Amino acid sequence: MVAEPTASPDGPRALGSDEWPLLDHLVSTVFRPEMFHDYPQLFNASNRANLRVIREGDHLVTHVGFTVRPAVLLGTVITVGCIGAVATAPEARGRGLGSICVQDAFDHASASGVDLMLISGGRGLYTRVGCREVGVDHRFILEAGNAAGRATVARPGLALVPLTDVDIPALGAIHEREAVRFVRPREDWERAFDCGIVMNTPSDFWGVSDGAGIIAYVVIHHPDRIRHRKAEDGLFVRVVEHAGPRDAVAHALSALIDQYGAVCAEVHVGGHDSELARVLRHAGLHGVPEASSGTIRVIDFPRLMGKVRPLIAGRVGHALASRLVFEADERAGSARGGFSIGDGSRTIRVADHASLGPWLFGTPDGTHSGPEGDQSLAADLAPALPLPALWYGVNYV
Ligand SMILES: CC(C)(COP(=O)(O)OP(=O)(O)OC[C@H]1O[C@@H](n2cnc3c(N)ncnc32)[C@H](O)[C@@H]1OP(=O)(O)O)[C@@H](O)C(=O)NCCC(=O)NCCS
Q: What is the model's pTM?
Protein backbone atom coordinates (compact mmCIF):
# COMPACT_ATOMS: atom_id res chain seq x y z
CA MET A 1 0.00 0.00 0.00
CA VAL A 2 1.29 3.48 -0.85
CA ALA A 3 1.83 5.65 2.24
CA GLU A 4 0.03 9.02 2.36
CA PRO A 5 2.00 12.20 3.07
CA THR A 6 1.40 13.92 6.43
CA ALA A 7 2.59 17.35 5.22
CA SER A 8 3.45 18.81 1.82
CA PRO A 9 7.06 18.02 0.90
CA ASP A 10 9.69 20.78 1.17
CA GLY A 11 12.49 19.98 -1.25
CA PRO A 12 14.49 18.39 -2.65
CA ARG A 13 17.01 20.99 -1.57
CA ALA A 14 20.26 21.32 0.36
CA LEU A 15 20.28 20.41 4.03
CA GLY A 16 19.68 23.51 6.19
CA SER A 17 22.44 24.48 8.62
CA ASP A 18 20.05 23.81 11.53
CA GLU A 19 18.89 20.41 10.20
CA TRP A 20 21.87 18.20 11.15
CA PRO A 21 19.97 16.54 14.04
CA LEU A 22 17.07 15.75 11.70
CA LEU A 23 19.44 14.18 9.14
CA ASP A 24 21.23 12.26 11.88
CA HIS A 25 17.86 10.88 12.98
CA LEU A 26 16.90 9.83 9.43
CA VAL A 27 20.14 8.03 8.52
CA SER A 28 20.45 6.53 12.02
CA THR A 29 16.94 5.09 11.71
CA VAL A 30 17.36 3.77 8.17
CA PHE A 31 20.97 2.50 8.45
CA ARG A 32 22.73 2.64 11.83
CA PRO A 33 23.43 5.25 14.51
CA GLU A 34 27.12 5.53 13.55
CA MET A 35 26.48 6.94 10.03
CA PHE A 36 27.80 10.44 10.78
CA HIS A 37 30.94 8.87 12.28
CA ASP A 38 31.36 6.32 9.50
CA TYR A 39 30.86 8.72 6.55
CA PRO A 40 32.77 11.91 7.41
CA GLN A 41 33.42 12.76 3.74
CA LEU A 42 29.64 13.09 3.27
CA PHE A 43 28.51 14.43 6.62
CA ASN A 44 30.60 17.52 7.20
CA ALA A 45 29.68 21.20 7.06
CA SER A 46 31.67 21.92 3.89
CA ASN A 47 29.62 19.30 2.02
CA ARG A 48 26.20 20.52 3.20
CA ALA A 49 25.09 21.80 -0.23
CA ASN A 50 25.52 18.25 -1.58
CA LEU A 51 23.31 16.66 1.06
CA ARG A 52 19.96 16.76 -0.75
CA VAL A 53 16.89 16.32 1.43
CA ILE A 54 13.10 16.38 1.43
CA ARG A 55 11.35 17.57 4.57
CA GLU A 56 7.77 16.98 5.70
CA GLY A 57 6.71 18.85 8.84
CA ASP A 58 9.31 18.34 11.57
CA HIS A 59 11.08 15.46 9.82
CA LEU A 60 13.44 14.87 6.97
CA VAL A 61 11.91 12.01 5.02
CA THR A 62 14.48 11.51 2.25
CA HIS A 63 18.23 12.03 1.86
CA VAL A 64 20.60 11.59 -1.10
CA GLY A 65 24.15 12.72 -0.36
CA PHE A 66 27.14 13.00 -2.62
CA THR A 67 30.78 14.08 -2.58
CA VAL A 68 32.65 15.79 -5.42
CA ARG A 69 36.28 14.99 -6.18
CA PRO A 70 38.62 15.26 -9.16
CA ALA A 71 39.78 11.91 -10.53
CA VAL A 72 42.65 10.95 -12.81
CA LEU A 73 41.95 8.57 -15.67
CA LEU A 74 45.35 7.75 -17.19
CA GLY A 75 46.56 11.34 -17.23
CA THR A 76 43.26 13.07 -17.92
CA VAL A 77 41.33 14.71 -15.09
CA ILE A 78 37.56 14.53 -14.71
CA THR A 79 35.18 15.59 -11.94
CA VAL A 80 33.36 12.77 -10.20
CA GLY A 81 30.38 12.75 -7.86
CA CYS A 82 29.84 9.85 -5.45
CA ILE A 83 26.31 9.19 -4.16
CA GLY A 84 25.74 7.44 -0.84
CA ALA A 85 23.58 7.13 2.28
CA VAL A 86 20.37 7.21 0.20
CA ALA A 87 17.46 6.91 2.60
CA THR A 88 13.71 7.42 2.83
CA ALA A 89 12.01 7.12 6.21
CA PRO A 90 10.12 3.80 6.36
CA GLU A 91 6.69 5.50 6.61
CA ALA A 92 7.37 7.67 3.51
CA ARG A 93 8.58 4.97 1.13
CA GLY A 94 6.99 4.08 -2.19
CA ARG A 95 5.83 7.62 -2.99
CA GLY A 96 8.64 8.41 -5.42
CA LEU A 97 10.54 10.65 -2.98
CA GLY A 98 13.75 8.62 -3.33
CA SER A 99 13.55 8.83 -7.13
CA ILE A 100 12.90 12.60 -7.06
CA CYS A 101 15.81 13.18 -4.67
CA VAL A 102 18.19 11.03 -6.74
CA GLN A 103 17.39 13.11 -9.85
CA ASP A 104 17.83 16.29 -7.82
CA ALA A 105 21.31 15.06 -6.82
CA PHE A 106 22.17 14.52 -10.50
CA ASP A 107 20.90 18.01 -11.38
CA HIS A 108 22.76 19.67 -8.54
CA ALA A 109 25.95 17.74 -9.38
CA SER A 110 25.61 18.80 -13.01
CA ALA A 111 25.38 22.46 -11.99
CA SER A 112 28.49 21.91 -9.81
CA GLY A 113 30.59 20.75 -12.76
CA VAL A 114 30.44 16.98 -12.16
CA ASP A 115 31.09 14.87 -15.29
CA LEU A 116 30.40 11.38 -13.97
CA MET A 117 28.42 10.00 -11.01
CA LEU A 118 29.31 6.87 -9.07
CA ILE A 119 26.54 5.33 -6.99
CA SER A 120 27.29 2.84 -4.21
CA GLY A 121 24.30 0.67 -5.08
CA GLY A 122 22.56 -1.09 -7.93
CA ARG A 123 18.88 -1.29 -7.01
CA GLY A 124 15.93 -0.30 -9.21
CA LEU A 125 16.04 3.24 -7.85
CA TYR A 126 19.24 3.68 -9.87
CA THR A 127 18.99 1.18 -12.72
CA ARG A 128 15.53 2.55 -13.72
CA VAL A 129 17.26 5.83 -14.56
CA GLY A 130 20.16 4.38 -16.52
CA CYS A 131 22.81 3.69 -13.87
CA ARG A 132 24.80 0.58 -14.76
CA GLU A 133 27.61 -1.64 -13.52
CA VAL A 134 30.76 -1.11 -15.58
CA GLY A 135 34.39 -2.15 -15.72
CA VAL A 136 36.53 -4.86 -17.27
CA ASP A 137 38.08 -5.61 -13.90
CA HIS A 138 39.05 -8.88 -12.17
CA ARG A 139 39.08 -10.36 -8.69
CA PHE A 140 42.10 -12.48 -7.77
CA ILE A 141 42.16 -14.80 -4.77
CA LEU A 142 45.34 -16.19 -3.18
CA GLU A 143 44.54 -19.26 -1.05
CA ALA A 144 46.52 -19.89 2.14
CA GLY A 145 47.24 -23.44 0.97
CA ASN A 146 48.64 -22.34 -2.40
CA ALA A 147 52.29 -22.85 -1.40
CA ALA A 148 53.70 -22.39 -4.90
CA GLY A 149 51.74 -19.20 -5.55
CA ARG A 150 52.67 -17.74 -2.17
CA ALA A 151 56.33 -18.58 -2.67
CA THR A 152 56.24 -16.81 -6.03
CA VAL A 153 54.79 -13.54 -4.66
CA ALA A 154 56.88 -13.51 -1.45
CA ARG A 155 59.78 -11.02 -1.44
CA PRO A 156 62.26 -11.76 1.40
CA GLY A 157 63.34 -8.11 1.80
CA LEU A 158 59.81 -6.76 2.33
CA ALA A 159 57.83 -6.55 5.58
CA LEU A 160 54.34 -5.43 6.64
CA VAL A 161 54.14 -2.40 8.91
CA PRO A 162 50.95 -1.10 10.55
CA LEU A 163 50.12 2.46 9.51
CA THR A 164 48.78 5.43 11.46
CA ASP A 165 47.89 8.98 10.52
CA VAL A 166 51.57 9.88 10.95
CA ASP A 167 52.14 7.99 7.69
CA ILE A 168 49.64 10.08 5.68
CA PRO A 169 52.34 12.04 3.77
CA ALA A 170 54.02 8.77 2.73
CA LEU A 171 50.67 7.24 1.69
CA GLY A 172 49.69 10.35 -0.23
CA ALA A 173 53.01 10.27 -2.10
CA ILE A 174 52.46 6.62 -3.10
CA HIS A 175 48.81 7.17 -4.00
CA GLU A 176 49.43 10.25 -6.16
CA ARG A 177 51.54 8.15 -8.54
CA GLU A 178 48.61 5.83 -9.37
CA ALA A 179 47.39 6.20 -12.96
CA VAL A 180 43.68 5.76 -12.17
CA ARG A 181 42.58 7.31 -8.89
CA PHE A 182 40.59 9.91 -7.06
CA VAL A 183 42.60 13.06 -6.42
CA ARG A 184 42.37 12.90 -2.67
CA PRO A 185 42.64 15.92 -0.40
CA ARG A 186 44.66 15.24 2.74
CA GLU A 187 41.43 15.58 4.75
CA ASP A 188 40.08 12.38 3.19
CA TRP A 189 43.06 10.43 4.53
CA GLU A 190 42.65 12.04 7.95
CA ARG A 191 38.95 11.18 8.00
CA ALA A 192 39.67 7.58 6.98
CA PHE A 193 42.20 7.07 9.78
CA ASP A 194 39.94 8.87 12.22
CA CYS A 195 36.83 6.77 11.58
CA GLY A 196 38.62 3.56 10.51
CA ILE A 197 35.85 2.74 8.00
CA VAL A 198 36.64 2.09 4.33
CA MET A 199 34.01 0.82 1.91
CA ASN A 200 31.44 0.53 4.69
CA THR A 201 33.53 -1.74 6.93
CA PRO A 202 36.10 -1.34 9.76
CA SER A 203 39.47 -1.51 8.05
CA ASP A 204 43.17 -1.88 8.75
CA PHE A 205 45.92 0.07 6.99
CA TRP A 206 49.18 -1.75 6.21
CA GLY A 207 52.37 -0.50 4.63
CA VAL A 208 54.94 -2.60 2.84
CA SER A 209 58.45 -1.58 3.87
CA ASP A 210 61.71 -2.43 2.15
CA GLY A 211 63.64 -1.58 5.31
CA ALA A 212 64.35 1.97 4.19
CA GLY A 213 60.72 3.14 4.10
CA ILE A 214 57.16 2.41 3.00
CA ILE A 215 57.05 1.63 -0.73
CA ALA A 216 53.45 0.35 -1.07
CA TYR A 217 50.28 0.08 1.00
CA VAL A 218 47.09 -1.96 1.22
CA VAL A 219 43.86 -1.15 3.03
CA ILE A 220 41.90 -4.24 4.06
CA HIS A 221 38.56 -4.93 5.66
CA HIS A 222 39.25 -6.17 9.16
CA PRO A 223 38.85 -9.94 8.63
CA ASP A 224 36.54 -10.60 11.56
CA ARG A 225 34.41 -7.49 10.85
CA ILE A 226 33.55 -8.29 7.21
CA ARG A 227 29.81 -7.94 6.75
CA HIS A 228 27.75 -11.06 6.00
CA ARG A 229 30.74 -13.34 6.65
CA LYS A 230 29.64 -16.79 7.75
CA ALA A 231 31.62 -18.22 10.68
CA GLU A 232 32.26 -21.45 8.74
CA ASP A 233 33.93 -19.48 5.92
CA GLY A 234 36.99 -18.74 8.07
CA LEU A 235 38.79 -15.40 8.13
CA PHE A 236 39.70 -13.85 4.81
CA VAL A 237 41.66 -10.78 3.83
CA ARG A 238 39.88 -8.39 1.44
CA VAL A 239 42.04 -5.64 -0.03
CA VAL A 240 39.87 -2.57 -0.70
CA GLU A 241 42.66 -0.23 -1.82
CA HIS A 242 46.25 -0.74 -2.89
CA ALA A 243 48.99 1.44 -4.33
CA GLY A 244 52.68 1.22 -5.05
CA PRO A 245 54.86 -1.36 -6.83
CA ARG A 246 52.75 -4.37 -7.72
CA ASP A 247 55.25 -6.99 -6.55
CA ALA A 248 55.06 -5.36 -3.10
CA VAL A 249 51.24 -5.43 -3.20
CA ALA A 250 51.29 -9.11 -4.17
CA HIS A 251 53.78 -9.82 -1.38
CA ALA A 252 51.36 -8.18 1.06
CA LEU A 253 48.57 -10.59 0.06
CA SER A 254 50.60 -13.57 1.26
CA ALA A 255 52.01 -11.79 4.31
CA LEU A 256 48.51 -10.73 5.41
CA ILE A 257 47.30 -14.33 5.27
CA ASP A 258 49.93 -15.13 7.93
CA GLN A 259 49.24 -11.92 9.85
CA TYR A 260 45.56 -12.81 10.37
CA GLY A 261 45.66 -16.59 10.08
CA ALA A 262 43.33 -16.16 7.10
CA VAL A 263 42.25 -18.84 4.62
CA CYS A 264 42.78 -16.54 1.63
CA ALA A 265 43.39 -12.98 0.48
CA GLU A 266 41.42 -11.32 -2.33
CA VAL A 267 42.06 -8.18 -4.33
CA HIS A 268 40.06 -6.27 -6.94
CA VAL A 269 42.27 -5.44 -9.93
CA GLY A 270 41.16 -2.66 -12.28
CA GLY A 271 41.14 -3.35 -16.01
CA HIS A 272 43.94 -0.80 -16.49
CA ASP A 273 46.14 -2.49 -13.83
CA SER A 274 47.85 -4.95 -16.14
CA GLU A 275 50.94 -4.95 -13.94
CA LEU A 276 49.22 -6.39 -10.84
CA ALA A 277 47.30 -8.84 -13.05
CA ARG A 278 50.62 -9.94 -14.60
CA VAL A 279 52.29 -10.46 -11.20
CA LEU A 280 49.36 -12.50 -9.90
CA ARG A 281 49.00 -14.57 -13.08
CA HIS A 282 52.74 -15.27 -12.92
CA ALA A 283 51.99 -16.81 -9.50
CA GLY A 284 49.43 -19.10 -11.16
CA LEU A 285 46.30 -17.18 -10.09
CA HIS A 286 43.30 -16.68 -12.37
CA GLY A 287 41.29 -13.48 -12.28
CA VAL A 288 37.52 -13.75 -12.16
CA PRO A 289 35.89 -11.03 -14.32
CA GLU A 290 34.16 -8.48 -12.15
CA ALA A 291 32.62 -5.02 -12.45
CA SER A 292 33.86 -2.14 -10.40
CA SER A 293 31.90 -1.30 -7.24
CA GLY A 294 28.30 -0.02 -7.53
CA THR A 295 26.93 1.65 -10.65
CA ILE A 296 27.68 4.78 -12.71
CA ARG A 297 25.85 7.32 -14.86
CA VAL A 298 27.42 9.93 -17.05
CA ILE A 299 26.28 13.43 -16.10
CA ASP A 300 27.70 15.62 -18.85
CA PHE A 301 28.64 13.57 -21.91
CA PRO A 302 30.17 16.35 -24.08
CA ARG A 303 32.18 17.71 -21.14
CA LEU A 304 33.40 14.27 -20.02
CA MET A 305 34.50 13.34 -23.53
CA GLY A 306 36.20 16.70 -24.01
CA LYS A 307 38.26 16.03 -20.90
CA VAL A 308 39.32 12.52 -21.97
CA ARG A 309 40.00 13.61 -25.56
CA PRO A 310 43.82 13.48 -25.03
CA LEU A 311 43.49 9.86 -23.89
CA ILE A 312 41.38 9.07 -26.97
CA ALA A 313 43.98 10.80 -29.16
CA GLY A 314 46.65 8.58 -27.66
CA ARG A 315 44.67 5.53 -28.66
CA VAL A 316 43.23 6.45 -32.09
CA GLY A 317 45.39 9.39 -33.15
CA HIS A 318 45.05 13.15 -32.90
CA ALA A 319 43.63 13.52 -36.42
CA LEU A 320 40.46 11.58 -35.59
CA ALA A 321 40.19 12.57 -31.91
CA SER A 322 40.36 16.30 -32.68
CA ARG A 323 37.47 16.02 -35.18
CA LEU A 324 35.10 14.23 -32.81
CA VAL A 325 31.96 16.10 -31.73
CA PHE A 326 30.08 14.69 -28.73
CA GLU A 327 26.44 15.64 -28.20
CA ALA A 328 23.65 14.73 -25.78
CA ASP A 329 19.96 14.98 -26.75
CA GLU A 330 19.01 16.29 -23.31
CA ARG A 331 20.55 18.71 -20.83
CA ALA A 332 23.42 17.51 -18.62
CA GLY A 333 22.18 15.56 -15.59
CA SER A 334 19.04 14.33 -17.33
CA ALA A 335 18.21 10.62 -17.19
CA ARG A 336 16.67 10.78 -20.65
CA GLY A 337 17.83 10.95 -24.23
CA GLY A 338 20.55 9.46 -26.38
CA PHE A 339 24.02 10.50 -27.45
CA SER A 340 25.73 11.27 -30.77
CA ILE A 341 29.36 11.10 -31.80
CA GLY A 342 30.36 12.56 -35.16
CA ASP A 343 33.62 13.24 -36.99
CA GLY A 344 32.28 15.72 -39.54
CA SER A 345 31.13 13.19 -42.12
CA ARG A 346 30.12 10.13 -40.08
CA THR A 347 27.84 9.76 -37.04
CA ILE A 348 27.13 7.04 -34.49
CA ARG A 349 24.39 6.98 -31.83
CA VAL A 350 24.19 5.49 -28.35
CA ALA A 351 20.53 5.04 -27.48
CA ASP A 352 20.44 5.94 -23.78
CA HIS A 353 22.32 6.01 -20.45
CA ALA A 354 21.81 2.28 -20.00
CA SER A 355 23.97 1.74 -23.12
CA LEU A 356 26.34 4.68 -22.70
CA GLY A 357 28.06 3.71 -19.42
CA PRO A 358 28.79 0.11 -20.49
CA TRP A 359 29.99 1.28 -23.94
CA LEU A 360 32.39 3.85 -22.43
CA PHE A 361 33.73 1.83 -19.50
CA GLY A 362 33.15 -1.76 -20.64
CA THR A 363 31.53 -4.65 -18.79
CA PRO A 364 33.03 -7.81 -17.28
CA ASP A 365 31.40 -10.12 -19.84
CA GLY A 366 31.78 -7.70 -22.76
CA THR A 367 28.19 -8.28 -23.91
CA HIS A 368 26.97 -4.67 -23.95
CA SER A 369 25.48 -3.37 -27.19
CA GLY A 370 27.55 -1.14 -29.47
CA PRO A 371 26.49 2.14 -31.05
CA GLU A 372 24.21 2.37 -34.10
CA GLY A 373 24.92 4.34 -37.26
CA ASP A 374 28.11 4.46 -39.33
CA GLN A 375 29.93 1.27 -38.41
CA SER A 376 33.20 2.45 -39.95
CA LEU A 377 33.32 5.25 -37.35
CA ALA A 378 32.36 2.77 -34.62
CA ALA A 379 35.26 0.55 -35.72
CA ASP A 380 37.71 3.47 -35.84
CA LEU A 381 36.70 4.45 -32.31
CA ALA A 382 36.74 0.93 -30.86
CA PRO A 383 40.44 1.13 -29.77
CA ALA A 384 39.60 4.29 -27.74
CA LEU A 385 37.51 2.26 -25.30
CA PRO A 386 37.05 1.17 -22.61
CA LEU A 387 37.95 4.08 -20.38
CA PRO A 388 39.24 2.87 -17.00
CA ALA A 389 36.55 2.40 -14.34
CA LEU A 390 37.24 4.05 -11.00
CA TRP A 391 37.41 2.01 -7.80
CA TYR A 392 36.28 3.80 -4.62
CA GLY A 393 38.67 2.58 -1.93
CA VAL A 394 38.95 5.31 0.72
CA ASN A 395 36.57 7.52 -1.31
CA TYR A 396 33.56 5.20 -0.86
CA VAL A 397 30.42 6.86 0.45
C1 LIG B 1 15.81 2.69 -1.27
C2 LIG B 1 14.92 3.76 -0.70
C3 LIG B 1 15.79 5.00 -0.48
C4 LIG B 1 13.83 4.11 -1.72
O5 LIG B 1 13.13 5.25 -1.27
P6 LIG B 1 11.66 5.58 -1.77
O7 LIG B 1 11.37 6.99 -1.42
O8 LIG B 1 10.72 4.55 -1.29
O9 LIG B 1 11.87 5.46 -3.36
P10 LIG B 1 10.77 5.46 -4.51
O11 LIG B 1 9.41 5.69 -3.94
O12 LIG B 1 11.24 6.39 -5.55
O13 LIG B 1 10.87 3.97 -5.05
C14 LIG B 1 10.57 2.90 -4.16
C15 LIG B 1 10.06 1.71 -4.90
O16 LIG B 1 8.89 2.05 -5.62
C17 LIG B 1 8.87 1.35 -6.86
N18 LIG B 1 8.96 2.33 -7.94
C19 LIG B 1 9.20 3.65 -7.84
N20 LIG B 1 9.18 4.24 -9.07
C21 LIG B 1 8.90 3.26 -9.95
C22 LIG B 1 8.72 3.21 -11.35
N23 LIG B 1 8.85 4.31 -12.10
N24 LIG B 1 8.45 2.04 -11.93
C25 LIG B 1 8.35 0.92 -11.19
N26 LIG B 1 8.52 0.89 -9.85
C27 LIG B 1 8.77 2.05 -9.25
C28 LIG B 1 10.06 0.44 -6.85
O29 LIG B 1 9.69 -0.79 -6.30
C30 LIG B 1 10.99 1.16 -5.92
O31 LIG B 1 11.92 0.30 -5.31
P32 LIG B 1 13.37 0.03 -6.00
O33 LIG B 1 14.03 1.33 -6.17
O34 LIG B 1 14.13 -0.86 -5.06
O35 LIG B 1 13.08 -0.59 -7.33
C36 LIG B 1 14.24 3.31 0.63
O37 LIG B 1 13.54 2.12 0.38
C38 LIG B 1 15.22 3.09 1.75
O39 LIG B 1 15.58 4.01 2.49
N40 LIG B 1 15.70 1.83 1.91
C41 LIG B 1 16.66 1.47 2.95
C42 LIG B 1 18.03 2.08 2.69
C43 LIG B 1 18.61 1.65 1.36
O44 LIG B 1 18.57 0.48 0.98
N45 LIG B 1 19.18 2.65 0.64
C46 LIG B 1 19.78 2.43 -0.67
C47 LIG B 1 21.20 2.00 -0.52
S48 LIG B 1 21.86 1.55 -2.14
A: 0.96
